[in-house]
Amino acid sequence: MRRFWMMIAALLIGVGVVYAQDDAQPGAPGLGDDYFPQLGNSGYDAQHYTLDLTWDDDTNTLSGTVTMDATAAHDLSAFNLDFLGFDIDAVTVNGETASFSRDGRELTVTPAEALANSEAFSTSVTYSGVPGKGVQDFYDTFARGWTRYDDGVYVASEPNGSAFWYPVNDHPLDKATYTFVITVPQPYLVAANGLLTNTTEDGDSVTYTWETTYPLASYLVTVNIGDFMVEKNQTEAGVPIRNYFPQEIFQQSIITFSPTPKMVDFFSETFGPYPFEAYGVVVANRNLGFALETQTLSLFGRNAALGGRGSEDVIAHELAHQWFGNSVSLAEWKDIWLNEGFATYASALWFEDKYGREALDNYMRDTYLALANPVFGPRFIAPGDPPKTDLFNGGVYIRGAWVLHALRLRVGDDPFFDILRTYYDRFKYGNATTDDFIGVAEEISGEPLDELFNAWLYADTVPAVPEMNLKPMLSD
């Protein structure tokens, strides 16, 4: 009797699979982000990417194959990858040729057979071309992805630039681990996320293999090619540090970035243990108007490495993102203050630890006066709902930092730092929203905090801070 019912169950399961395949649907061409609704695809969960690419120095041509291992989120007849430009030579799913079509940044892949719900699958895209050639869809120059300059290449992709150089589910909600197999001409070096696991020379070329242990959001993926020298170090807690500096400014770069190990230990004590396998920085031998917290290997320009004004502040800021932004990632881009406000305040905490509470008070007072000034203040847009066209305006940084300082003044130091540690621990390696943070703050403090958060996140003008005798200036 038991064998009979097992046979019936097996038959029903088989019928169910056939029905599911007949009823398969394409994945939605976006993950529903309010600001970037077309980014990502809801039909699958990316698990791992292998980027096996060769770079030609003379032409800046990038060629090779990117393979994504993923799990179907439902019975899946087709799915999209974000990908712009390039000539596509082949697309396969589970080793079988798949049909594909393109519309803007959407590469739609249709496998030969539909994929069942929860089925693990692998798709590979073989392509070649010059990154960005013929593409007019840049968010801004900060998000160009693969960027060639005189001495090499750097990759900076926030918020949506990854699709300009490899096919990807390009939204922070779908993190994945990565393998980079990057072949370049001698004597270039390659620095990427994670750890260097293999180097293979073949005549005039060399292949570098990098591996990540922890998942990362696509905009935090980086590949850097240059005439680097490597400095290795570690923190007192044993976190490996590896820095990639241009040879001509190697010694000055060592001096400029020398506080990094102590910063890692300080933030580890303040927020929780450093979340990844290693840390370090890479310096492009070119002046940049930004720095970027690419995971495990923050990107800087030579101007920062030369120790200009504010360099230490920027170094602390990008490092702090490894906790807030990289480990605890955005669920939606409108909540960018959770990245930038936290990192800005973290750099202020570093200087408080280094120089004392008076240094922090002076910094927060100065920034408040800028926010409260009726002439300059409107430039710092309320951070809870920044405009898509000005996502990285000063408000998400400075006023975002003030959200945290106002919370600290309200609840006191011990509850405040408990809030930060709890928020980090609860959402590490995942995604969070503003409401998630507010929920933790109210849980730990035991207070209703809607009024405080609404005033600092959404009001047109900043509220008064009686604890520091600060109030907005009145316009004439």
What does this structure look like?
The protein has 476 residues and is α+β, with helices and mostly antiparallel strands. Among the domains are: 44-226, Immunoglobulin-like, CATH 2.60.40.1730; 330-468, Neutral Protease, domain 2 (Orthogonal Bundle), CATH 1.10.390.10. The chain is built from 11 helices and 21 strands. The protein has helices at residues 2-22, 250-256, 260-271, 302-305, 311-320, 337-355, 357-372, 394-411, 413-427, 434-445, 450-458, and strands at 44-55, 62-72, 79-82, 87-93, 96-97, 99-103, 106-110, 120-129, 145-149, 152-156, 177-185, 189-192, 195-202, 205-211, 223-226, 228-234, 240-246, 281-284, 298-301, 328-330, 430-432. The strands form 7 sheets. It has an 8-stranded mixed beta sheet, with no helix packed on it. It has a 3-stranded antiparallel beta sheet with strand order 3-7-6, with no helix packed on it. Helix 3 crosses helix 5 and helix 6 (337-355) crosses helix 7 (357-372). The chain is globular and about 65 Å long.
The CATH architecture category of the domain at 44-226 equals Sandwich
Class from helix and strand fractions: alpha+beta
Beta-sheet strand percentage?
A: 25-35%
CATH top-level class of the domain at 44-226: Mainly Beta
| N-end to C-end Cα span | 90 Å
Largest sheet: 8 strands, mixed
Report the uncertain regions: 1-20
CATH third-tier fold name of the domain at 44-226: Immunoglobulin-like
CATH homologous superfamily identity of the domain at 44-226:
tricorn interacting facor f3 domain
Task: Count every helix, treating DSSP H or I runs of 4 or more residues as helices.
Answer: 11
Q: Indicate the percent of residues in helices.
A: 25-40%
> What is the spatial order of strands in the main beta sheet?
5-4-8-2-1-11-14-13
